[in-house]
Amino acid sequence: MATIVPHQQPTPERFFNAINAYELTEAMKAAIEVELFTAIAEGNTAAATIAKRCDAAERGVRILCDFLTIHGFLTNEGTEYALAPDAALFLDRHSRAYLGTAMEFLLTRRVREGHARLAEAVRRGGTALGEGTLERENPDWVKFAEAMMPLMHGPSEIMAAELRKGGEAHKVLDIAASHVLEVAMKNAQAMGVVDRYPLLPGSAFETDFGGDYDLVLIPNFLHHFDPPTCTTFMRKVYAALKPGGRAAIAELVPNPDRVTPPTAAAFSMMMLATTPTGDAYTFAELESISKNAGFVRVELAPPEIGLDRLVIAYR
Amino acid sequence: MATIVPHQQPTPERFFNAINAYELTEAMKAAIEVELFTAIAEGNTAAATIAKRCDAAERGVRILCDFLTIHGFLTNEGTEYALAPDAALFLDRHSRAYLGTAMEFLLTRRVREGHARLAEAVRRGGTALGEGTLERENPDWVKFAEAMMPLMHGPSEIMAAELRKGGEAHKVLDIAASHVLEVAMKNAQAMGVVDRYPLLPGSAFETDFGGDYDLVLIPNFLHHFDPPTCTTFMRKVYAALKPGGRAAIAELVPNPDRVTPPTAAAFSMMMLATTPTGDAYTFAELESISKNAGFVRVELAPPEIGLDRLVIAYR
To answer: Considering only CB atoms, which chain A residues are within 8 Å of B59?
Structure first.
């Protein structure tokens, strides 16, 4: 999220730009669809040659490139465009860290509809869509799991390194949205660990976890639920851990002011629009949830795990 | 538009924030609908009391207020919220400069749809919606005229003062979208100038303007059309002016780089999404259009007219 520079004089500009903010969403979507970033990565730098590669109109490409330059995804020098570093790494289809596939999940019809009915969500204090994105048979989670794989590779390595500092974990439980197990199994096959990757299908609230775990991973799960539900869940995690075992919670964690850092803090809005009672929890809230579930000590680990922070709860 | 601060390390954060940019549009829309800014202006500063005034849930209001704080429309101190100066002036329903009514025009279904089909617009080099917002019987222009009146009061005074420096204008032609004449007449009645405010209904491209004008005002009109159409139109304006008369063009005018200032430059995208051939023109382009139409001298006047600049073409 860009830094806000306060205007000296009141101006309607901020209002207009906020009302028109959706144009950036649509511009990113269009650019990924026509493979604009990939075209530039391939060495096309003028609107005419980019347009040819994208099978698009020069005028359309010129206006889109200028717009993306304004928003920091491209740079320009005269009539030549180049990719900004973030765009080169994440938006070129040839890059290992390509994120374009995540777009489809991030902008599913239900997520957009939840926001289109945001006034209703504000009035009722939760999504206007019933169960929102938490409905049991939501196939979007499969798309999500597939799309997030390249993105999560780096952060999961940071997380593993951080957790290894607290000792090796021999028996690990990894909590996930139930529908992504097929994707998880494919990933396990690709990584050659399928013989030590048993699955426990079913709802994380109902399925028997077994016990004696050294470590339970809870990545981006708790934000979908209210604190009492999180506490109930964490009690179940506590019971499944060995004495001295750890629960590793990865979450977007806003500061106590709830407005910084901006991306983590803004995530509350996504939860309001798309879930009945979800939220972005502060460390104090995650600590309280964990302690109410029986954990004796709760820490905020130093490194950033992508956009997440890592909270470690000790049994 | 907020200033872009480049990240030191490549991060997917900018991508996520761009994909989710539409959340700010929806949040502004929801806040205006539930009268959140007005509630705060009336002295409600805690989520609970704001919620009561807005007939909304405290949790919904808290999340919305935090989100608007992140985006600079509110400030917070502990659990108390206050309006940022822009929000106090433009978003409190009791303010003379209230802009909330402009939202409806800015977010009409057709404008949103044009953006939802932006990849198509990029491919063809113009809106995917046929005539886009320029269709003849588009009632949105009436909404627009009504909504823009409070907003344009200040800028029109700046424009009048600037034009007065070049001498008094006794006979003035004001170009407008044809459907807004009824709104213009209501405004003229309210201002007590109806006896010297004759109307010329019909298309600005076809209606006989008459002649001997000292001044022709062309506010936010040319950006809807391509340069040849603008030139044809400016020839008609030229013919209607007295020798020594002036055409006053108010437009969002980007710099020659087409990416600064950001709001004016980004307006090209609105034209791509919603019109067949419209654009935000640089001063050099407006000068060229005017000179091709016969004008002898073209100036960029110093003051900002709201988000517009004033270009004066001399016959």
So the answer is: 125-126, 272
pLDDT in tens, A224-242: 999 999 999 999 999 999 9
This prediction's pTM: 0.93
Distance of CA A277 to CAs A133, A273, B19, B309, Å?
A: 11, 10, 23, 47
Nearest to A71 among B18, B24, B151 (CB): B18
Report whether pLDDT(A1) > 50: no
Q: Hey, what are B14's tokens?
A: 């900018």
- What residues are paired with B241 via a beta bridge? B213
Query: Which of B6, B89, B107 shows the shortest C-beta gap to A19?
Result: B107
Considering only residues A37 and A191, tell me which one the structure prediction assigns the higher pLDDT. Answer: A37
Backbone angles phi, psi at B229, to 5 degrees: -65, -40
Q: Which of A3, A11, A260 sits opposite B2 (nearest CB)?
A: A3
Task: Using CA coordinates, name the residue in chain A closest to B102.
Answer: A16
- Residues of A within 8 A of B271 (CB-CB) are 63
Helices (H), strands (E): how many in chain A? Answer: 14, 7
Hey, what are B15's tokens? 């991508």
Which chain B residues are within 8 Å of A15, Cβ to Cβ?
28, 86, 90-91, 99
User: How would residue A177 be classed by pLDDT, with cut points 50, 70 and 90?
Assistant: low
Model ipTM value: 0.93
HSE-CB at A228 with a 13 A cutoff on CA atoms is 1
